[in-house]
Amino acid sequence: AQTVTQSQPEMSVQEAETVTLSCTYDTSESDYYLFWYKQPPSRQMILVIRQEAYKQQNATENRFSVNFQKAAKSFSLKISDSQLGDAAMYFCAYRSRQGAQKLVFGQGTRLTINP
Amino acid sequence: DARVTQTPRHKVTEMGQEVTMRCQPILGHNTVFWYRQTMMQGLELLAYFRNRAPLDDSGMPKDRFSAEMPDATLATLKIQPSEPRDSAVYFCASGLAPGTGTSPLHFGNGTRLTVT
User: Fold this and answer.
1) Residue in B33, B109, B110 closest to A103 by CB
2) Does residue A26 carry a pLDDT above 80?
3) How confident is the model at residue A100 (pLDDT cuts 50, 70, 90)?
4) How many domains does chain A have?
């Protein structure tokens, strides 16, 4: 079974600085998707960024980018120019393209933005 | 802007009562998931439907939980009888099956269940 590990329960960063959230996963598959979701205090789950495993180019969405290292099974999220609205729980998630195709989540990283 | 709709947003009930949570997936999505979120366990998958057929409910306590999709516009999660340990936020999510795009799941706002 696939597992996702986020080793940083909490992170903090100064406003306008850059922060990187770590995520590793375990799988024997070669074709899958990876996602980062954001959950603010409102508890809504918001998709931040997505990556397809067959694409070597790292995904970017405005201030959010990923460092996808397929061989190392690593999928970190970089937030540039951090803003107060970025404060939230961030979840890394894995979805297979075969089989049950479940979305498996890591335990989350709570990000605090210091003004 | 299409979104997943969950009702109710909050539910407080007494132990032993039946609880029904409802979800309206995004029109056109053919996969529906139910997740439970607690501080201790994080996000746990309870059930998964594709084209309204249950594919995986291994994460769901079978003796008291049941999940159904009576039609493509409605998914339900029932707990009978409810217990205090069922207190959690329950999320419904919908999406397209992988192979038809990058397949992110779109989440509803969740139902916060409190069982006293």
Assistant:
1) B33
2) yes
3) low
4) 1
